[in-house]
Design goal:
The chain is α+β, with helices and mostly antiparallel strands and 237 residues long. It is built from five helices and twelve strands.
Amino acid sequence: MLTLFIANSQPPFFRHINVGVVSHFPAITYCQVVFDACVYQDSLFDEYAIPFPAELGKTVPKRRAEYLAVRYAARRLLEDAGCAGHVGTAASRAPVWPTGWCGSLSHTGNHAIAVIAPSHTGLTPGIDIEMLAPGTMRETATIFTDTKEQSLLANCGIPYETALLIAFSVKESLFKALYPEAGCFFGFDAARVCSIEPATQRITLELTQSLTPRRKSGHRIRGYYLLQAERVITLIA
């Protein structure tokens, strides 16, 4: 799903920085970083030229480190594309992209990822990255899947807990992709998993609610997933 073009680092905070394109959507570029929250300092915002929002001052250092890491990933992509703008934050906490661009952000543990695409492509990227937590997946499965989905996931050829995580993550990606268009919050029950294909790492969702004039109940949306060690990344565009 991700085709790597550039790999480097900027220690001590950024241990790994990978930049490339999404193979299924070449107009979408990505930047995935591994960072060390233990060495975080507020001065890093100035060092990496990332605006420090006032509301972030009320948060713990771990949250500031996550914000810096994922905003750096987005800034790196925008700069590489010739855009000098920054990613802001709306009152809803959704990212606000510079004019002419759209994208998505996600982080978990010490990993963060950003994707961007030119607005004129018509793509609406939603990205999510999650750490595998088998016990949590089993305990919370009923929150984000129904019994029919659970049966499908249990018989798809992927370890059940991993399949549950993919389902959870792709629904998070769906929300990020469609929220700007829908303009309202919607829950996990707004879509159901109707197929998952391990051979192609493709997963298909069917909307159970009409979210926009173009995204009506019954509309099917294809997503992709990537397993990385103890993590899963999902993308919808």
